[in-house]
Fold this sequence. Notes:
Elements: H1 14-32, E1 37-38, E2 44-46, H2 47-50, H3 56-61, E3 63-66, E4 73-76, H4 81-92, E5 98-105, E6 121-128, H5 133-149, E7 156-161, H6 162-172, H7 176-187, H8 191-197, H9 205-211, E8 216-217, H10 220-228, H11 233-248, E9 254-257, E10 270-275, E11 284-288, E12 302-308, H12 309-315, E13 324-327, H13 334-345, E14 350-352, E15 365-372, E16 375-380
Parallel strand pairs: 1-5, 7-9, 13-14, 13-15
Antiparallel strand pairs: 2-4, 3-4, 5-6, 6-12, 7-10, 8-9, 10-11, 11-12, 15-16
Helix pairs in contact: 1-5, 1-12, 5-11, 6-9, 6-11, 7-8, 10-11
Amino acid sequence: xxxxxxxxxxxxxxxxxxxxxxxxxxxxxxxxxxxxxxxxxxxxxxxxxxxxxxxxxxxxxxxxxxxxxxxxxxxxxxxxxxxxxxxxxxxxxxxxxxxxxxxxxxxxxxxxxxxxxxxxxxxxxxxxxxxxxxxxxxxxxxxxxxxxxxxxxxxxxxxxxxxxxxxxxxxxxxxxxxxxxxxxxxxxxxxxxxxxxxxxxxxxxxxxxxxxxxxxxxxxxxxxxxxxxxxxxxxxxxxxxxxxxxxxxxxxxxxxxxxxxxxxxxxxxxxxxxxxxxxxxxxxxxxxxxxxxxxxxxxxxxxxxxxxxxxxxxxxxxxxxxxxxxxxxxxxxxxxxxxxxxxxxxxxxxxxxxxxxxxxxxxxxxxxxxxxxxxxxxxxxxxx
Length: 384
């Protein structure tokens, strides 16, 4: 059965491919109008370059192979973000703020979520060179604006800050193994497991770690956290950053989640996840990842987000597709050929029927070219 594809890989047939392409153009134009420049990194790179600064999750999701030219191990990219960081740090070498965007396929060894495939079409934007919370604010606005452009409403945007857990883990003196265990329990909001895992953690850090899963909700959560968590400098700075975001984005459906620590080993500041009705997982993810370019020669402040355009295309409202015009074969009719060329120049889809072709299987033709005297006119195709 040579026509079968591997599991969690799929073709995009004409209607779906047209929707994805329309969304790609719409979102990239949205980025371009805000000064984000398009880059196109390669699908393959040396493995160590792709995994620089990445967490264990990305390492496990990356396909590996041997380069027949150099003998070195290559990776098939599972995320374009490290590639954009390499371009910013090593190739562009700007001293000020750099704004980059991208769109391309990535490949995963396993699906990232229960609803995802193994070949996401990743589209995203990254902002380098600005350490202030204003950059995170700008990136969240950019993301929300992209969903407005494609008319896919966001039901909520969860925001958090990995600095809170990091400060608690450091102050409590958690060994790495214990930190990983507590981190996993927090992400799954396993409160009974968390209570057991934190039994030997000194107070007040034990109570603070156990409280994190309940610190979820509206903006009031920030002040609850300020009252209930230890007054560590890292926690105070993180909460102040979250206050700034809430104040700067009053028109967005923000919620606070202080135990949402996805990408903990990669991110080091604000993190956010966007959700929409009818989709069980986050439809877009982002956050701050300062210093990831250090391995490429420059440690730069960085923040950004990305999403899978294939999944977005499944959820975004389908616009009415433009019907095509059916035309006779024009190779021997100069006037007809010129008329067809003029229509195509105006953006019309014109399908020229080949000799012996009796019907157009696609695209859908709702009009046809008909000759009236010496002129060609467009007529509606009457359904039988």
